């Protein structure tokens, strides 16, 4: 989880939430190339020794690894932006440059709800609610981070309500 906070204008605060990306796309490509070269060297050695069946399984293994890394990289492009201003709140969920969801709420009518599971089997949910409409934010956060984020945006909301 990466959560950044910036003051975008005189009275607005912007929060950016995204999953933890410990491996960059370039690092992922380098990792894949190193594993590919090492695996093909070992498979080629077995092929020269007459054990030809190792090569197809090595290629299958590399295909599965490549697809897995691609799906991981694609999933890590997800981000949520929450901009809180005295007049309104703007929530945008993105995957790369594609906007998945965009919602706007009035600051005075929004409530922040942190739903906790009674048995602690499931992760908590952080919701923005207003006029019967509800959206989940911070889905990629841990429970502890979600609690801290809820407290932060609640304090920001109260500050914005006092300003207007």
Automatic annotation (TrEMBL):
Keyword terms: Membrane, Transmembrane, Transmembrane helix
Query: What InterPro entries does the database record attribute to this sequence?
Result: DUF2244_TM
- One short Pfam name that applies is DUF2244
Q: Where are the transmembrane segments?
A: 28-47, 53-72
Q: Does the keyword Transmembrane helix apply?
A: yes
Would I find Membrane among this entry's keywords?
yes
What name goes with this protein? Answer: DUF2244 domain-containing protein
